[in-house]
Structure formats: C-alpha cells, structure tokens
C-alpha cells in the first residue's frame, strides 16, 4: 500500500529524474555543432550556434566547450537577451585567436552583449598577440587599425559571474566591460609579458556594483583600469605586476563624462609595477569628478610612484601650458599602505590648481625608498592638504603646502 511518505518520495524522485533529464538536455556541446577542437579549424561558428541554441531555450542552459584547443577567427559575437540564465563552461579548454592582425575587422575578438545572468566559467583565451606588439601600430591609440582588438569584451552583461577565466597574450586590452551592472569577476588570471604593448588587464567603464576578487595579473599596462561612470566597485585580493598598477582615468579629456564614485580597493599586492594607485586627469579638461575612494591594506614591492594623483596627465605633450584640470577629487582615504618605492617620490599628489583635492585622508603609511640614490622616500604635493592619521612615512605634504 502507498503511504503518504512513499508517494511523496515517488513524486520527489520523478521531479529529480525530470530535473536531471532537463539539465542534461540543456547542455549544448560545441562539438555537436561541428567544432573540431584541432587547434587549426575555425570553431567560431560552432560556438555561436551552440550559444544561439542555449540562449533560445526556456530553461537555464549551458554552452560546453570541452577540453581541447579551439581556433576562433576572425571574431565572434554572443548576443542576448537569452530566455533564461545561461552558462559558458570552458574548464580545460584553450581558445586561440589567430596571430595575424589582418584577420580582424573589429575592435574585439570575443564579444558578449545584452545578456543578464550569464555565468562564464573556466577556459583560457589566448590572443596570440606577440606579432601585433612588435608591429606597435597604435603607440598612443591613434588612427590606422586602432584601437586594436580586445580579447574579451562584455557590453551590457548584467547580474553575471565571470570566474576562473584566464586571458593570455591579448593583442590589446585583455578584458573590457561596460554597462555590466552587478557583475562579479573572481579568480581571473591575466598573463602577458612585461614587453607586450597596451595589454591592460581589466578595463571597466560606465557600470555599477562590480566586484573583482582573488585575481592575478601580470601584464604591461594597468592591471585594472577604472574609467568614467564607475560606481560602487569593490576590488579585493589582487596580485599585480609586472604592470602599471590600478589606475583611475584618464578623465577629463571628453565632455559629459560621468563621475567615478564609490571605489573600495583592499588587499592588493603590487610588485615591480610602474605606478601603484594612480588617478590620471587631463589639464585643460572638461569637468568631472572622482569621490568616495578607499584604499586599504596594500603592499608595494619596488613600485615606482606607489601613490600618484596626476592631474597634469598629458602623455602626448599637446596640452596648453598653464591650464589646470577641471576634474575634482574628493573624499579619498589611504590606510595601511606598506612596502618599497622604486622612485624617491613615494607619495605624489599633483592636484589641480582650479579644483584642489578635498577631504583626503592618509593613515598608517610606511613606504621606504630602495633605489640607487639612497636616502629616505619623499612626498610631493600641490593643491592638497591631506589629513594625516597615525604614522605616515614619508611625511605627507610637510610644511602645510596647499
Ligand atoms: C542591445 O540592446 C540594445 C537595446 O535594446 C539595442 O539597441 C542593441 O542593438 C543591442 N545590441 C545588439 C548587439 O544586439
Ligand atoms: C541590455 O540588454 C537587455 C537584455 O538583456 C536589454 O533589454 C536592454 O535594453 C539592454 N540595454 C542596453 C543599454 O543596451
Ligand atoms: C560585491 O561585494 C559586496 C560586498 O561584499 C556585496 O554586497 C555585493 O553583493 C557584491 N556584488 C556582486 C555582484 O558580487
Ligand atoms: C587570494 O587570491 C589568490 C589568487 O587567486 C587565491 O589563491 C587566494 O586563495 C585568495 N585569498 C583568499 C583569502 O581568498
Ligand atoms: C588583507 O591584508 C591584511 C593586512 O595585510 C591581512 O591582515 C589580511 O589577512 C588580508 N586579508 C585577506 C583576505 O587576504
Ligand atoms: C565636482 O565636479 C562635479 C562635476 O563637474 C560637480 O557636479 C561637483 O559639484 C563638483 N564637486 C565639488 C566638491 O567640487
Ligand atoms: C626595482 O625596479 C627597478 C625598475 O623600476 C629595477 O631597475 C630594479 O632592479 C628593481 N629592484 C629590485 C630589487 O627588484
Ligand atoms: C609647455 O611648456 C613646456 C616646458 O616649458 C614646453 O616644452 C612645451 O612645448 C609647452 N607646450 C605647449 C603646448 O606649449
Ligand atoms: C564627502 O564626504 C562628506 C562627509 O565627510 C560628505 O558630506 C560629502 O557628501 C561627500 N562628498 C562626496 C562627493 O562623496
Ligand atoms: C617602515 O618599514 C621599514 C622597513 O620595513 C622599517 O624598518 C620601519 O621600522 C618601518 N617604520 C614604521 C614607522 O613602521
């Protein structure tokens, strides 16, 4: 006879079978779409058609890129909206771009757009950029084939998780995200040699509620670059170097830039980077603002300019002399920043004469100079009066410079 319990168990079991069947059916293996995985054949269209099938399903679905090496060119677009949450699982897979820049007609290699609830898990995306770096076609992002293709570009990918992804040898930036609210990047590995060109790790812009955690970045340019319109960003447990540190900006070069507001950067170790924590704004600039910025528990190992507000950022040297930046910097705190500086000037606050830096706090800092000149580290300050808490070495802006 059937007890209520056994009926419940049977129903439960049926649901379980249905669930397993459904979740099994919801995996679209790119091999079923003709991917060869021989590292020679272009498997890009197989990935696109697996995506299109998974994306069109009513229930949560996955694109599976099994272990193997896949060539993808010239570029692929994975576009939503999808009917349900979608996953791309590529654990153990290596996806490679062709080395030849001529094969690209767009400013990205792999683009994902207009998707909510994406989980992109695992995989190595290799941009094979070596030949492109040698050509050095865009030294300052100028015309010609510029900008060069970004390895992974996410636009309007919201409420998503990007995890255990490795990007290597990109031709240009490794990852670029814009309009990607409420997305988490975790265990990301960025690898390109120190002599690569313009290989920023992760560039973000115009988004809010993004967290980047537990990641390792070795590259030639900014490990993380924070552009206009970034709000409520948390960066934690990052190892950076070689590279160019964690940068905000550059800002003020274009009209109507949105503010950068609410950035928490914690537990970062930088080794041998060209800058540490930097803010770059152009002189002769359009208005803009950076506020509510908090740096905490940062270790610097032989970093040039560990802390640097550069409000006269003008790499092309074409800025009008005697003009100041219009980007105001306010409400910034530094707490527990330790280690060594490769330049004598460990703290450099070059703030704007027109909109001085306001409400800046420095607490518990110990940066020592380790370089050929010898002697202690120093600070250089303009248009700032930081509030000093605890012990700050080198003394921040002694003599009450404003
Ligand atoms: C993304 O969505 C926006 C707004 O619906 C639309 O204008 C745009 O064309 C979409 N992008 C792509 C690549 O489909
Ligand atoms: C973002 O994508 C969603 C679909 O996921 C779409 O409804 C929305 O219009 C897009 N927004 C923009 C700014 O493209
Ligand atoms: C980011 O981290 C904050 C603080 O831990 C958390 O409240 C928020 O939900 C996280 N956001 C995402 C998208 O993971
Ligand atoms: C910090 O990140 C590294 C690199 O991903 C990871 O190995 C380590 O477990 C993380 N630490 C914590 C406390 O999560
Ligand atoms: C963050 O850094 C502080 C100071 O160096 C250290 O005590 C703490 O264990 C670190 N936390 C994590 C999660 O790595
Ligand atoms: C900073 O600049 C923004 C944008 O121009 C402006 O709205 C804001 O009032 C300024 N804030 C301060 C403190 O000057
Ligand atoms: C520190 O960095 C400088 C270049 O910035 C380099 O020449 C020097 O060898 C490095 N020192 C150590 C101890 O790594
Ligand atoms: C600004 O002044 C510097 C140093 O005097 C000079 O080298 C540079 O050419 C000037 N730039 C312009 C645009 O006038
Ligand atoms: C800066 O902090 C003060 C309080 O310390 C607050 O009143 C003000 O609104 C903050 N400004 C910005 C732009 O975050
Ligand atoms: C700063 O660091 C140096 C080198 O590690 C150490 O000798 C010194 O005692 C530290 N100073 C403070 C004030 O903690």
TrEMBL record:
GO terms for biological process: carbohydrate metabolic process; cell wall organization. Residues 1-25 form the signal peptide. The keyword NADP does not apply. SMART domains: PbH1. Keywords: Cell wall, Cell wall biogenesis/degradation, Glycosidase, Hydrolase, Secreted, Signal. It comes from the Eukaryota. Belongs to the glycosyl hydrolase 28 family. This is Polygalacturonase. It comes from Lactuca saligna (Willowleaf lettuce).
């Amino acid at each position: 006879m059937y007890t209520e319990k056994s009926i419940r168990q049977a129903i439960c079991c049926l649901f379980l079978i249905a669930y397993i069947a459904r979740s099994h059916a919801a995996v679209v293996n790119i091999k079923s779409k003709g991917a060869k995985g021989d590292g020679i054949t272009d498997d890009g269209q197989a990935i696109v058609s697996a995506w299109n099938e998974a994306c069109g399903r009513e229930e949560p679905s996955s694109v599976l890129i099994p272990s193997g090496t896949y060539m993808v060119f010239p570029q692929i677009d994975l576009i939503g909206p999808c009917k349900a949450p979608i996953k791309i699982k590529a654990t153990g897979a290596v996806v490679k771009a062709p080395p030849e820049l001529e094969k690209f007609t767009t400013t990205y290699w792999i683009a994902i757009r207009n998707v909510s609830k994406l989980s992109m898990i695992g995989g190595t995306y290799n941009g094979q950029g070596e030949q492109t770096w040698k050509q050095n076609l865009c030294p300052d992002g100028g015309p010609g084939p510029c900008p060069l293709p970004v390895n992974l570009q996410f636009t309007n990918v919201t409420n998503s998780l990007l995890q255990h992804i490795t990007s290597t040898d990109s031709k240009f930036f490794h990852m670029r995200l814009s309009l990607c609210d409420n997305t988490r990047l975790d265990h990301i590995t960025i690898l390109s040699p120190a002599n690569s060109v313009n290989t920023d790790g992760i560039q973000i812009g115009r988004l809010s509620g993004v967290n980047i955690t537990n990641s390792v970045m070795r590259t030639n340019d900014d490990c993380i670059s924070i552009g206009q319109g970034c709000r409520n960003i948390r960066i934690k447990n990052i190892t950076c170097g070689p590279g160019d540190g964690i940068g905000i900006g550059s800002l003020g070069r274009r009209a109507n830039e949105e503010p950068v507001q609410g950035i928490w950067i914690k537990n970062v170790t930088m080794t041998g980077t060209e800058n540490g924590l930097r803010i770059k704004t152009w002189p002769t600039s359009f208005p803009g603002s950076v506020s509510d910025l908090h740096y905490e528990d940062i270790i610097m190992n032989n970093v040039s300019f560990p802390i640097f507000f550069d409000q006269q950022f003008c790499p092309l040297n074409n800025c009008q002399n005697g003009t100041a930046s219009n980007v105001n910097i306010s409400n910034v705190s530094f707490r527990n920043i330790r280690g060594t500086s490769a330049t004598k000037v460990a703290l450099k606050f070059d703030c704007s004469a027109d909109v001085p830096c306001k409400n800046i706090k420095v607490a518990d800092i110990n940066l020592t100079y380790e370089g050929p000149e010898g002697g202690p580290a120093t600070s250089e300050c303009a248009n700032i009066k930081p509030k000093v808490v605890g012990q700050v070495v080198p003394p921040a802006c002694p003599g009450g410079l404003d």
